[in-house]
Amino acid sequence: IKAAEKGETTQDAQQLSRKLTRYSRTLPPLMAGMKISQKAAAAGFEWENIEGVWAKFHEELAEFEEALQQEDEAHQQAELGDLLFTVINLARWYDLDPSEALQGTNQRFIQRLKKMEAFADRPLSDYTLDELETLWQQAKAQLAASGELNQER
User: Which of 92, 78, 112, 105 has the alpha carbon at shortest distance from 40?
Assistant: First the structure.
């Protein structure tokens, strides 16, 4: 009935690619990637073991590094996307939520930056990279010691 309402045949509505396209259009990219990965795996498009996923990760990383040596931004973007999708697959295999993981990293980064600013006696842009690294490590250590930092980066 739903397929008919959308002008689709029942066969069209059952195509995996149509379902996956809906996820990519309606969900944030990391969530869509996870849902697409899950549905593809459930349909049998899956590695035999985690070693296969790791091999794919290393392959995609090498392809991304190679693409960065070229001046074709579209190719670089495509290879970055492939690498990110493979990381999503690793997360799925380890039963981790990539959106939650990235959100946590974003929060930890902001916490550390806030501490760095508290330690700084001038704008951060006035510091050298080495000085910023020192402030970063100092902020990281203080947050870890105070228990404010949930996970190390």
Answer: 92
Q: Note down the domain range covering 2.
A: 1-46
Amino acid making up residue 24: S
Do residues 54 and 91 share a domain?
Answer: yes
The pair of three-digit structure tokens given for residue 46, joined into one six-digit string: 């899956």
Distance CA 94, CA 105 (A): 18
Q: Please spell the DSSP secondary structure of 30-51, one letter per residue.
A: HHHHHHHHHHHHHTT---SSHH
Distance, CA of 43 to CA of 29 (rounded, Å): 21
22 and 42, same domain (yes or no): yes
Q: What torsion do the CA atoms of 112, 114, 115, 117 make, to the nearest 10 degrees? A: 120
For the entire predicted model, the pTM comes to: 0.82
* Mean per-residue pLDDT of the chain: 92
